Amino acid sequence: QLSGKWFLVGMASRCSYLAEHSHQLEATTVTMTVLDGPSLAISTFRKLDRMCWEIRQHYLPAQAPGRFLLKGEGDCSKVDVVVGEADPSSFIILYYQKGRSISLKLYGRTSLVGDAIVDKFEQRVRAVGLSEDVTYYFPTYGGWHMVLRETRV
Prior knowledge:
Elements: E1 4-12, H1 16-20, E2 28-34, E3 40-48, E4 51-61, E5 67-70, E6 79-87, E7 91-98, E8 101-108, H2 115-127, E9 135-137
Antiparallel strand pairs: 1-2, 1-8, 1-9, 2-3, 3-4, 4-5, 5-6, 6-7, 7-8
Organism: Leptocoma aspasia
Domain Lipocalin/cytosolic fatty-acid binding: 3-138
GO biological process, one term: complement activation
């Protein structure tokens, strides 16, 4: 159900690199392929320095459905990936945890998602102790994707 093309719509993270370079965010698409196991093959396409780059990752199945492990070089570089919520026809929210650091990503089947989906994402962001200060929304290929939110008092 997760297979196919996805657009990275938003991300919440305390990553200092992301904070320093948020003004340079580029439209990002991802192709997910469910493999045997069931593991996920993730192919990420994004522009960087006016060139298109493909990043390939392999998410290994973990102990429970909807949980994956992304291994890097060495033991300390493993990332736990959890499907937080998904409607495979429209959106998916993924949690990424490395040690005590956590981040969330919102993907959509289209580059624009509805307010209800953005609300779900922002609720989950707050639930893990992150804030709008560390939440970033990605542009689309056709221009900037702006998410304008009312301030709730």
